[in-house]
Structure of Multidrug resistance protein EmrY:
Amino acid sequence: MMGSSNVNNNRPPYGILAILMIGAFISMLNETLLNVALPSIMKDLDVETSTVQWLSTGYMLVNGIMIPATAFLIQKYSVRGLFLTAISLFTIGTFLAGFSTAFPVLLVARLIQASGSAIMMPLLMNVMLTSFPPEKRGGAMGLFGLIFIFAPAVGPTLSGWMLEHFDWRMLFHFVSPIAVIVLLIGFFLLKDKKEKVDIRLDLLSLLLSSVGFGGLLYGFSSAGNKGWDSPQVYVTIIVGAISLIAFIFRQLRLEKPMLEFRIYKYPMFALSSAISVVISMAMFSAMLLLPIYVQTIRGISPMKSGLMMLPGAILMGIMSPITGKLFDKIGGRILAVIGLTITVLTSYFFSKLTLDTSYAHLILLYSARMFGMSMVMMPVMTNGLNQLPARFYPHGTAMNSTLQQVSGAIGSALLVTIMTSRTKAHATDLAASAMKHLTEKPTPAILAEMKQQVAMKAMLEGINDSFVVSVGIACIALVLALFIKRAKQAEDPNEVKPTDQQKIVKKLVEN
């Protein structure tokens, strides 16, 4: 891998970056590609909703377990070795999933895919950080943002179109040849030199990390279906939290930790982490709640539901590189404040949905929200990473990726739980109100129609209440964004500085 010493001197390795970006794009695309297909898989493989959800929850769990270890892997192994391992695992999982006829086989294939995908994103981000100087990093990270946000956003649209024309297995058959091509290109063209690093993986740290992050992810992901009072939810969250605390204390005691928590002594990185966590929670509200509103309440097809999100995804894709260039010129605070203001306003308007909100209005509102989001995520993250000394880049990228997975799961669970509990409360109130206004004994047909109307109206109000919470979450991020300052790379306390005599000798040699 590129050493930190030659960050500014050498031309960035655009070939390596291009290969890594394609690999990262298909792995991120795959994360949301399957969501729309879950009902078809349930029917075809004869499984329940709680079972089929493991295809998404399991994927997230493996990411949560694997990503913390990527800081160690990036330091220990070469870019070529790591990338080829990651894309090979992803390709094997994709092929296996495409030909699976039983749910356990499909689930194992999905977990193999996730183990490759977990390595890909932190690896790409680390190569970008070590390839560009801070003053040019915004533009480069803008392209990274294109993958990070555009790929998952376009997934539902592509999935909806494919499901209307093909079997759900085509989602995997579509990705398989692309994965094989990327693997072959990487094998023949990807070359990088890396000195052997004497670093060993602390197995206890890996165990505590896996139980900690895995427990939290599983607990919060299960809360939406099982409820917060389920032992399966609160026990795993408690065990996860205790394991995570033990993991943090162990990392602070180790000379060479698996994940370096001392990076939080750099204020801009700590602030960027806090904002990213809050934004990840808020971002999932529209991605999660809108399809429920559109498909369940309005009866719009999965294809049209996916298409509704496409303009926003395209707008975000266009804006990511532009936002990156603007970040290099004006810094992150102005962009984050403008973007978060737009996010707060659009989230507020989403909390005013009705039973007949127009399709065009939904597209416009969602696109505006994505436009706001495009000005926040990458500038905030890049500004925080810019303050870290170069040797902490692997830890910074791994920490950001892990926190996004965990906060995304927590945000999803929180908003679904709020929607569910508020829907029940509204249903009780609406039913009581409807019964009061009845002047005569209703027929079974009238009762059935009334029950359906109450259920629809209650769910609508539950979704609106969830969006109100989302407004509050986005407001917290907006307040935090006011404290952003343009970060300068901090000095590494462990770096050996050259003496005046060494500097003179170096100048003489260069001249």
Q: What stands out?
A: The two ends are 29 Å apart (CA to CA). Residues 1-9 have pLDDT under 50 and may be disordered.
